[in-house]
Design goal:
Chain B: It comes from Antarcticirhabdus aurantiaca. The complex is a heterodimer of chains A (569) and B (684). Chain A is mainly alpha-helical and 569 residues long. Helix content of chain A is 64%, strand content 2%. In chain A, helix 10 runs antiparallel to helix 13 (361-372), helix 13 (361-372) packs antiparallel against helix 19 (530-564) and helix 15 (416-440) runs antiparallel to helix 18. The radius of gyration of chain B is 34 Å and the shape is elongated.
């Protein structure tokens, strides 16, 4: 680890917070339906959408209506994308004449983009037509992100309102998230990425003469527009197979810094918006401190593990001070690669600029664990916020009793109904990850896809289901997932991880919004300040750790201790 | 009451019965109410089957046998905790039950006719029946007196043997089944059906037999079920994962892992904590109609307290003597003493006390020979004494002015000091009492409501806990404000009518606050019903008792403060033991996980940070620790965690440190110690 490395990390994080504060203020206005500086330009567009689709944005929905609207909208999005992928062969904007996708791959991919996972069982530049990339994947990049933001806003309203029935209008929230937040940021930062060297063209490819005199075909396309929203919406599905390690998707250290910033900025701003909407900005600071504390710890562990390298590399005669550079891009180096790995999984992004499977076992365990903790550090756009609020509800319940009152969070009493739903929600991740992993670990059809034996193979299995159920989408590398078993079960894991979580979470919102907001007193459990930060961080670690420790002991932990003993797989 | 003597948790007579009950509670149908322990019982049964199989196959038995035994112990210890809590309640219930058995009632054919009586069992009475209760009779059921006045011994309910007066009409018209009429007779209209009377409910509550889970208990149980499911998933899926790694784990060991991880500690102690909370309340002579009310009292934000009896002593007391020009304070005091020697009112006595203590005047035991005492009357609003030619009077200022004028037979100029003192005292919220001798003004006695000596500190304590205190009084706003500031309450309602109280409570509730109050009169009933915690006084009316959700058998309004403390302590105990239980899992992982896999992956031995002797002893030690910690924590569960009035942040920091951090560290030590014993004895 070097000072310069840490400086890179801290500068990027500082830039995120610096922009997220005003963006959060802006977003709180957008979702309170107040006038913003963009209203003169986007107001007519917004109203146009409502007129065309026959939506009255002032008519609010209860939690069930909101959730059903969201589910219907996403189901329609899934169906459209599935059909588009199946029939891309006969549709326009297909200069390379790619055929339609197989049913299981189309299912997997459609689910993947609708759920904001963006797991890619395919290689983008060798599978997808321009139409699929632009009208299919990029559209879902926006909509899945906007869906997440809308849901988080609905939960925040449930805390902010007292004795109300409705949590907002899903269609209006989704439209506003897209128009006022995601679209302007995408245009601005997409142009910056073009300036840094990312292609944006309808050309299929360029053929160039290499230095050796051979010919090479370079895949091109509308790249910049897709990758800007891929990062801003914490989608993570790259244009190219190599994702953010590809020199066109992520050409320079500066573009790397920009993409990390893009990943973090909306989720972070949403936390600030939460503070404003519930009328207590200290609450936002506390939540963000937990996120920052654990994320920086994750970055630190990954960076330390990668910088420490492995005794095997040292034995092979490599300079031990270089650390473990296997699977990493020279232009990014250890610090930026470790940070990218932690951020992409602390969020629910899933873009990668290095191969996580080539990290040291502990270094590779960091992104895995960050997803297992619930992708709440700071998590996907919207999903991170509602995810950490659900854990906060559980933390407040456990520890809140210790002050001698019925637990309450943000003035809302936490009772049996909320606990039931919170428990249902947090059961999804271990069920999907451990359940599918356990079956896959003994199923020949699954094992044939593994690239490595021993604990590393087990890590490949964990990572795939963890990434899918957590709606992350990053891959560990090594696993060949384009087979019916993997495509189908990973698709199911993605659906469970997204929608089976959202429904109980929204039921909590419905229950909370109806409750009277209690006035705080000095007898109230304080949910701001260092004590709560420590408590929430502790519960996140203990809850996540307890669920996955036995599994991790057999995977990355076993691999690490064996590696230190000189054994590799 | 019988159980008041039960200071020790493990009284031999209770332990014997509880041990038997612990086995009876193994009945799986009953145990389903407690999901965590039910799961433990199921897996214990599974291991038992495997043990029998090994027995028949002649396989080694020592390890499986010990695991099996300790799993059953875990279930039994949890049952024992509940049984001992119930046992303590039952000891109390038995003394109550004696009063209930086989009461015969004299049912009246009509409410008017006290001669046409029919002898029926108390159990056959219906709501609305009229019964005659005469000297020596047990009151056959809860009811309202419609005719008569009698003294009633309520020791069966309150533990207080001095009889109290009960009469038709007014605020003392309720009688409780099981109490005894010791003089005169009453006609009582039965208001509660047999089995649902006050005494029946009390018995059911302390026994824990019909105990319903309270809302918070229900929510906590859901959390515990969730934790159990999470660990069930983690352990079941481990079969596939470990077989991939070539480290397949046997069923008894998986079961051991599961049982040590699921929250058996809090699962086993949860109902004991609830019963003990109810028990603690009854020890304070407060009866809650439901566990829900006990929990709600921990949440209270605002306390409505009656001024009289709670904040101040019941009566006004003399606090100073002001003398007019030409009279010394001591002289004024001496004259006041003479006027009050035969005055039996509380004000009168307080004048004597003040004179003795502040002015060192020796007060004779009896009035001088030949003196005539003039008692207070509403018409004259004066009292005093005639000593030969000397006439001394004290009384309301206007009455004294009139007395002086009439005695002197002319207008007497009022001394400036007199006028000023009267004004000053009235402004401060006190009552000025004029003092005159013959035809002249002597001075003014300052009567004031005396705030109880320690009440201000108690309110400060409450404020630290975030609880606002509101004084309710019939006094005018000036008097009320003065007492409020002296007592240190946060707010007051002056000239309070029952409607004012109700409105105040509603308004507080609209702002999201929980309100507790106590009351006794029928006109308190609406407010008692509206309050989140309504404590009715045992001396109060049936209406008040029905409206409230608690009854204070001592009829002590100050008790409200204790009730809040008990509610808080109950919730704190639950939260602390839950935190402790979950935190324990960290150490258990470090004991068991390396033990599970070290045979297949020897390098995982580095996780054995405790240096436990063998994989078998590690697993066994974790299981034993898990079982013993339940027993070790029974006294804490029954007694409740130490509770002091502090603000929430301080309480949280303290409890997190003790039960959170302690919960992580204690099992490391405990498991290691058990491992030393287990491996030392060669048990593995």
């Amino acid at each position: 680890m070097t000072v310069v490395g840490w400086l890179q990390i801290l500068v990027i994080l500082a830039a995120v917070v610096a922009f997220a504060v005003p963006l959060g203020a802006f977003m709180s206005k957008v979702f309170a339906n107040e006038r913003t500086f963009l209203t003169p330009v986007l107001g007519p567009v917004e109203r146009g959408f409502y007129r065309v689709s026959g939506i009255d944005p002032a008519r609010e929905q209860g939690w069930l209506g909101y959730t059903l609207g969201m589910l219907a909208f996403n189901a329609a999005g899934f169906l459209l994308l599935y059909l588009l992928l199946r029939f891309q062969g006969v549709l326009p904007l297909n200069p390379q004449s790619f055929p339609g996708l197989s049913p299981h791959l189309a299912f997997n991919t459609a689910v993947s983009f609708v759920t904001n996972t963006n797991w890619q069982s395919y290689g983008g530049e060798t599978t997808m037509s321009h139409l699929s990339q632009m009208a299919g994947l990029t559209v879902q990049n926006f909509l899945s992100a906007a869906t997440g933001i809308a849901l988080a806003v609905a939960l925040v309203r449930a805390f902010a309102r007292s004795g109300a029935k409705t949590v907002g209008n899903f269609f209006a929230d989704m439209t506003r998230a897209t128009l006022y937040v995601l679209l302007p940021l995408t245009i601005l930062t997409g142009l910056a990425q073009v300036a840094m060297g990312t292609p944006q063209t309808f050309e299929a490819s360029a053929t160039v003469q290499t230095l050796e005199g051979g010919e090479q075909t370079l895949a091109l396309g509308p790249v910049a527009s897709q990758i800007a929203i891929k990062q801003l919406g914490t989608n993570g599905g790259g244009f190219y197979n190599a994702n953010a390690a590809h020199p066109y998707e992520n050409p320079t250290p500066l573009s790397n810094a920009l993409t990390i910033w893009q990943m973090l900025v909306v989720s972070t701003a949403l936390v600030f918006a939460f503070g404003r909407l519930v009328g207590d900005r200290r609450q936002a600071v506390a939540i963000l401190s937990v996120m920052g504390l654990l994320l920086v710890t994750g970055i630190g562990i990954a960076y330390w593990a990668e910088a420490a390298g492995t005794p095997v590399l040292a034995a092979a005669g490599l300079d031990p001070t270089g650390g473990n550079m296997e699977g990493k891009e020279i232009r990014f180096g250890l610090a930026a690669s470790s940070m990218f790995a932690a951020v992409t999984t602390g969020l629910s992004d899933g873009a990668v600029n290095a191969m996580h499977g080539s990290f040291t076992p502990i270094g590779g365990m960091v992104p895995m664990v960050l997803i297992m903790l619930g992708e709440i550090l700071p998590g996907g756009v919207g999903s991170g916020l509602y995810g950490i609020l659900v854990i906060a509800i559980i933390s407040v319940f456990v520890a809140g009793l210790m002050v001698g009152r019925t637990p309450e969070y943000l003035g809302k009493k936490i009772e049996a109904k909320e606990m039931k739903m919170a428990i249902l929600a947090i059961l999804i991740l271990p069920t999907a990850i451990l359940g599918f992993s356990s079956v896959s670990a003994v199923l020949p059809a699954a094992l044939s896809g593994l690239g490595n034996a021993g604990p590393h193979g087990l890590s490949e299995i964990y990572y795939a289901y963890t990434s899918a159920a957590g709606n992350n989408g990053s891959a560990f590398g090594g696993l060949s997932a384009n087979s019916p078993w993997w495509n189908t079960t990973l698709g199911l894991a993605m659906l469970l991880g997204r929608f089976a979580y959202i429904v109980p979470m929204m039921a909590i919102a419905g229950s909370l919004v109806a409750k009277t907001k209690l006035a705080p007193s000095s007898g109230t459990f304080p949910t701001h300040g260092p004590l709560f930060v420590g408590l929430l961080a502790g519960i996140i670690l203990i809850l996540g750790g307890l669920q996955f420790f036995p599994a991790l002991a057999l995977g990355p932990i076993a691999e690490q201790v064996q590696m230190l003993a000189g054994k590799t797989f | 009451m019988a159980a008041k003597a039960a200071t020790s948790t493990f009284r031999p007579d209770l332990v014997g019965r509880a041990t038997i009950d612990a086995f009876k509670k193994l009945n799986p149908v009953a145990l389903m109410r407690n999901p965590v322990i039910f799961v433990t019982e199921v897996v214990a049964a599974v291991v038992t089957v495997l043990f029998v199989r090994d027995l028949l196959a002649g396989n080694p038995l020592l390890f499986t046998g010990q695991i099996m035994a300790w799993l059953w112990f875990t279930v039994l210890f949890a049952n024992f905790a509940e049984a001992i809590a119930e046992g303590r309640g039952r000891a109390q219930a038995n003394s109550l039950r004696k009063a209930r058995t086989d009461t015969m009632a004299k049912r009246m054919a009509s409410a008017k006719d006290r001669t046409a009586l029919q002898s029926v069992s108390a159990l056959d009475l219906k709501v609305g029946d009229h019964v005659l209760v005469e000297t020596g009779d047990l009151v056959p059921g809860d009811g309202e007196i419609v005719e008569g006045i009698a003294s009633v011994n309520e020791a069966a309910v309150t533990g207080e043997s001095a009889p109290v007066i009960r009469e038709a009409g007014g605020d003392r018209s309720a009688v409780t089944g099981g109490t005894t009429v010791v003089s005169d007779w009453l006609v009582v209209r039965i208001t509660a059906a047999p089995g649902s009377s006050f005494l029946d409910r009390m018995i059911a509550l302390v026994e824990g037999a019909e105990r319903q889970k309270t809302p918070n208990e229900l929510a906590l149980t859901i959390l515990l079920v969730g934790m159990t499911l999470i660990f069930l998933i983690a352990v079941v899926t481990l079969t596939g994962l470990s077989s991939y790694a070539g480290a397949a784990v046997s069923v008894p060991i998986l079961v051991a892992l599961l049982v040590t991880l699921i929250p058996t500690t809090i699962g086993g102690l949860l109902s004991a904590i609830g019963i003990a909370g109810m028990d603690r309340l009854i020890r304070h002579n407060v009866l809650a109609m439901s566990g829900k009310a006990v929990e709600a009292s921990g949440d209270v934000d605002t306390l409505l307290l009656d001024k009289t009896g709670t904040i101040t002593f019941g009566n006004r007391m003399a606090s100073e003597f002001v003398a007019v020009q030409g009279v010394t304070e001591t002289e004024a005091a001496q004259i006041a003493v003479q006027a009050s020697l035969a005055d039996e009112t509380a004000e009168g006595r307080s004048i004597l006390v003040l004179a003795r203590e502040k002015y060192g005047i020796s007060v004779p035991d009896a009035p001088q020979e030949g003196s005539t005492f003039i008692p207070f009357s509403a018409a004259t609003r004066l009292s005093g004494v005639d000593l030969g030619s000397k006439t001394i009077r004290k009384g309301s200022v206007d009455a004294i002015r009139k007395f002086v004028r009439e005695t002197a037979g002319r207008e007497v100029t009022e001394p400036q000091a007199f006028t000023q003192a009267v004004e000053r005292i009235a402004k401060s919220g006190g009552t000025p009492l004029g003092l005159a001798e013959n035809g002249r003004f002597v001075g003014v006695i300052h009567l004031k409501d005396v705030v109880k000596p320690d009440i201000k500190e108690r309110f400060a304590e409450l404020r630290r806990m975030g609880i606002r205190t509101v004084m309710v009084t019939g006094d005018n706003p000036v008097t009320a404000a003065a007492i409020a500031s002296e007592a240190g309450v946060d707010d007051f309602i002056a000239e309070a009518t029952p409607q004012d109280k109700l409105n105040y409570i509603r308004n507080e509730q609209r702002q999201g606050r929980l309100v507790a109050m106590c009351g006794d009169g029928t006109n308190d009933a609406p407010a008692l019903a509206q309050a989140d915690v309504g404590v009715a006084m045992q001396t109060g009316t049936q209406a008040a008792r029905e409206a409230g959700n608690m009854v204070d058998l001592d009829s002590d309004p100050t008790k409200l403060i204790e009730i809040v403390g008990i509610g808080k302590q109950l919730l704190m105990t639950r939260g602390s033991l839950t935190t402790f239980s979950i935190a324990n899992d960290v150490a258990k992982y470090f004991a068991i996980i390396p033990a599970l896999f070290v045979a297949a992956i020897p390098e995982l031995g580095v996780l054995n940070v405790m240096g436990l002797a063998t994989p078998e002893s590690a697993i066994l030690s974790a299981v034993i620790f898990n079982a013993l910690v339940i027993v070790a924590l029974i006294p804490l569960a029954l007694r409740g965690v130490p509770y002091r009035a502090m603000d929430a942040a301080t309480v949280l920091r303290r409890n997190l440190l003790v039960y959170g951090l302690g919960g992580i560290l204690v099992p490391f030590v405990g498991i290691k110690m058990i491992d030393v014993v287990v491996s030392g004895l060669g048990l593995s």
